[in-house]
Amino acid sequence: MRRCACLLAALLVIGNYAPASAQDNKKESSKKLPDGVYAVLCESLIEKDVLPLKDGEALAVHRHRYLKKDDKEPPRFLVVRPAPDVDLALASAPKAVKEGEEVVRILLKLQPKAATALERLTSDRLGRQVTIVVGGEVVTMHKIREVIKGGEVQITSCALGAANYLMEQLQARQRNK
Questions:
Q1: Is the preceding omega at residue 84 within 30 degrees of 0, hence cis?
Q2: By the 8 A CB rule, do 86 and 155 touch?
Q3: Whether residue 80 is found in the same domain as residue 126
């Protein structure tokens, strides 16, 4: 009887510990990320491949929300830092390059502090991925192809809807300054 009671007590302790730990991890990963540019530290199509998160990491999910309905992509689970590597601090209004009604490129000029952070990020992570988060959600992901100096940025290769949405959000941020 005593052995059963000890086993039951051990199961209760372990049972209570495991879910609390999983809830803490989910709570940490479900916090809304601030707007900005993030280095992608790790990514996978399978959430459990990027878990558990370490201290100083957050989970972002790229749901490809802006693809056309026929273009299906599975969600990508991204590990990023909880704060952006580069704030979306614009020195001037963003400019859109359009083909028809669709934005195909966005031209940005960052404020000096953000420009310095972007140069450091693109230098340190050349050839790797970054993601742009707006409104707490991943809007686009991009491969860093070259070091970006001077804070003049050209964002290309977005899903068409993502570029339009990103442009609208950047314009709204600039108006609310």
A1: no
A2: no
A3: yes
- What's the rounded Cα separation, in Å, for the pair 174 and 155? 17
Range of the domain at 22: 1-30
Of 91, 86, 80, the C-alpha closest to 35 is 86
Strand partners for 80: 58
Among residues 60, 52, 113, the alpha carbon closest in space to that of 88 is found at 113
Are 10 and 50 members of one domain?
no
Pull the structure tokens for residue 143.
Answer: 């491969």
Looking at the fold, whether 49 and 5 belong to one and the same domain comes out as: no
CATH for 95: 3.30.1360
pLDDT one-digit tens code per residue, 93-148: 999 998 888 888 999 999 999 999 999 999 999 999 999 999 899 999 999 999 99
Q: Give me the count of residues in the chain.
A: 177
pLDDT in tens, 46-82: 999 999 999 999 999 999 887 766 678 899 999 999 9
Same-domain check for residues 123 and 148: yes
